[in-house]
Amino acid sequence: MRLKRGFTLIELITVIVILAIVSLGVFSFVSIGTRIYVDVTKRDQILSEARFVMERLSRELRRAVPNSIRISDNYRCIEFAPIAWSSFYEDIAVSPEPATDEIELASLDGYQREMNDRVVVYPLEPEHVYLAGDDHNVPPAADPVSGNTLTLAFAHQFATDSPASRLYIGRQPVSYCLLGNNQLTRHTGYAYRDVQSESPSNAGIGPGVLMANYIINDPLDANDRPFRLESATLNRNALVQLQLRFELNEELVVFNSEVHLPNVP
């Protein structure tokens, strides 16, 4: 006669406890692995955004009209006028000469006009680029280019000649602004303004395009400002210092870049 065998209560409880411990260990291992993966993914996202915005901004600044770069009084926005075209002129109307709306250039081959394009000659400071009025803008309607003759919107007198007879056509301004929600946005599609705005909300320059998140710079701290401009000296051209601090999940990444501006008036 065979004896019937089975688990005792103690054996059953022991097995359940062992399975629970093993399951807890496996869950913890998977949880830690998942957390590490998520953290690495977010870190890569921050690094990608940071590299992209630093490279994009640096390239655009190098292509800016000389002395068109300006930083707002609260250090949250940097603005500049991209170069649409540059050439040498034969002659321009300089006060007290009569104003004229035509300029003879060495070449205009390849120039494609856009809204708010502006002619700039020998700009020594931002005020020379962002002058109020549009009499030295390229007209948006009709074709302003005939051969090597550039026609302005209205007759205009320039403040001074360029020693090298160099002329720039600036595209509509571009602004990069650090918002209060730790986002960096790019704004364009607006007209030239003599007074720079301290924020997009009261500037009429539109909502902008998001370029980066998680930027925690404090512009009120002189050592933590995202944008700094150093004017040209006898020994070097002007340069812009960029410092963006990114933070996510208490992990800090700092990007610094020094952009040398090759263009001269």
Structural description of this entry:
With 265 residues, this protein is of the alpha+beta class. Helices cover 22% and strands 29% of the residues. The chain has helices at 9-62, 126-129; strands spanning 70-71, 77-80, 83-91, 100-105, 118-121, 145-146, 149-156, 166-170, 174-178, 184-187, 209-212, 227-230, 239-248, 251-260. A 6-stranded antiparallel β-sheet has the order 5-8-3-4-7-6, with no helix packed on it. Strands 1-2-9-10-11 form a 5-stranded antiparallel β-sheet. The chain has a 3-stranded antiparallel β-sheet with strand order 12-13-14, covered by helices on one side. It starts with 8 loop residues before the first helix and ends in a 5-residue tail after the last strand.
How is the topology of this model organized?
Layout: H1 9-62, E1 70-71, E2 77-80, E3 83-91, E4 100-105, E5 118-121, H2 126-129, E6 145-146, E7 149-156, E8 166-170, E9 174-178, E10 184-187, E11 209-212, E12 227-230, E13 239-248, E14 251-260
Antiparallel strand pairs: 1-2, 2-9, 3-4, 3-8, 4-7, 5-8, 6-7, 9-10, 10-11, 12-13, 13-14
- Indicate the radius of gyration in whole angstroms: 30 Å
Strand order of the largest sheet: 5-8-3-4-7-6
Please describe the biggest sheet, giving its number of strands, its sense, and whether it closes into a barrel: 6 strands, antiparallel
Number of folding domains? Answer: 2
- N-to-C series of helices and strands: HEEEEEHEEEEEEEEE
Q: Could you list the spans in which at least 5 consecutive residues all have pLDDT below 50?
A: none
Strand content: 25-35%
For the terminal residues, how far apart are their CA atoms?
Answer: 111 Å
Helix content: 10-25%
The SS-based structural class is alpha+beta
Mean pLDDT: 86
Helix segment count? 2
- Tell me, briefly, the overall form: elongated
Number of strands: 14
Protein name: MSHA biogenesis protein MshO
Organism: Lacimicrobium alkaliphilum
InterPro entries: N_methyl_site
Keywords: Membrane, Transmembrane, Transmembrane helix
